[in-house]
């Protein structure tokens, strides 16, 4: 519990263990010339399909607006996340765990310590099934309205993700229900990432460059800058939009589409003035679901670029620590996935 940054007194400087060597921390492109595409889900069906596929192919990342999750749900979610991180330590101590197998836990990026480096983030990570049933019974009971609001946000946000997957199927010529089975029905994860104010943002990271290991991720970023996406060799800043979701493809979607859609590296910078909290919903396959390139994307000219393995095996061979520390992840994934073909 003493590893949690948000409970420690404000620091005047960053301890050495957080310092990232400057060559590993290229600054974001200074011009805001490139920004992530914004897809308006209230547009015509054909337009939306095309926009998602174009944005996905070009950036691997986009924002969606008019997605149907109400502003009230977004504001309630933001408020209850803030309330949670403001609770006194004794009300959260029972949730703290460094055991990665635990589905519901509070932990800190300070415990990743990859390559000797720690990350400036605390995280509340919760799992849920659908129907939700009693999967929330281990969720925090304090603040009192947390469970109700988290459940509503989690279920609705997952719904938007499923809708996006369906639209992607149509755009790519897959059956609309291609992702409805085991590929998306593993426990969903609701992750609240909290990045406290940091005295030295130019030498620290909230999250190192990484690709997400799951199928698709939706992030509600809140009003503070921090998320950056790799685009043509440059880091570009994601512009916070109060009611949008930032959507990105996980490695499983790259595998299923045989690389047509790419899982793109992203990182989180810290901020000296403001703490930042983001809320991410991860949709992922079942542990025993075999994930490999779909037949629709294979032909004599398009052999599989990835090996077919169960999601459970994939997770075991690609630990979060390895992933989050790897700067060359996609290549790394291909090398590992390609072997034995
Ligand atoms: C993640 C992630 C982005 C953010 O949790 O995998 O990339 O803005 N989060 O917190
Ligand atoms: Ni991520």
TrEMBL record:
UniProt key word Protease: no
Keywords: Iron, Metal-binding, Oxidoreductase
InterPro entries the record matches: DIOX_N, IPNS-like_FE2OG_OXY, IPNS-like_sf, Oxoglu/Fe-dep_dioxygenase_dom, Plant_2OG-oxidoreductases
Pfam families: 2OG-FeII_Oxy, DIOX_N
Gene Ontology molecular functions: metal ion binding; oxidoreductase activity
Signal peptide: none
Top-rank taxon, per record: Eukaryota
Family: Belongs to the iron/ascorbate-dependent oxidoreductase family.
Protein's UniProt name: Fe2OG dioxygenase domain-containing protein
Organism: Setaria italica (Foxtail millet)
Gene name in the database record: LOC101755866
């Amino acid at each position: 519990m003493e590893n949690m940054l948000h409970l420690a007194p404000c620091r005047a400087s960053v301890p050495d263990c957080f310092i990232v060597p400057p060559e590993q921390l290229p600054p974001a492109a200074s011009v805001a010339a490139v920004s992530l595409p914004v897809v308006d889900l209230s547009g015509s069906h054909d337009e939306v399909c095309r926009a998602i596929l174009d944005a996905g192919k070009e950036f691997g990342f986009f924002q969606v607006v008019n997605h149907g999750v109400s502003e009230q749900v977004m504001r309630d979610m933001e408020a209850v996340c803030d309330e949670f991180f403001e609770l006194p330590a004794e009300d959260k101590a029972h949730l703290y765990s460094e055991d990665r197998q635990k589905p519901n836990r509070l932990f800190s990026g300070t415990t990743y310590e990859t390559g000797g480096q720690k990350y400036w983030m605390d995280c509340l990570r919760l799992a849920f099934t659908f129907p939700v049933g009693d999967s929330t019974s281990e969720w925090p009971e304090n603040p009192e309205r947390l469970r109700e609001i988290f459940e509503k946000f989690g279920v609705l946000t997952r719904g938007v993700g499923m809708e996006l997957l369906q639209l992607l199927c149509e755009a790519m010529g897959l059956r609309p229900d291609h992702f409805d089975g085991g590929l998306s029905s593993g426990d969903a994860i609701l992750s609240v990432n909290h990045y406290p104010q940091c005295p030295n943002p130019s030498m620290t990271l909230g999250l190192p460059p990484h690709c997400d290991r799951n199928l698709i991720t939706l992030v509600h970023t809140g009003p503070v800058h921090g998320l950056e996406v790799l685009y043509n060799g440059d880091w570009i800043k994601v512009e916070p939009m109060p009611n949008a979701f930032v959507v990105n493809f996980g490695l499983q979607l790259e595998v299923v589409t045989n690389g047509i859609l790419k899982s793109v590296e992203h990182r989180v910078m810290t901020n000296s003035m403001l703490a930042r909290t983001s809320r991410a919903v991860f949709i992922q396959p079942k542990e025993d679901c075999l994930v490999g390139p779909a037949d629709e994307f294979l032909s004599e000219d398009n052999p599989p670029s990835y090996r077919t393995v169960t999601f459970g095996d994939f997770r075991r061979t690609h630990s979060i620590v390895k992933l989050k520390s790897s700067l060359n992840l996609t290549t790394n994934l291909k090398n590992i996935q390609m072997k034995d073909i």
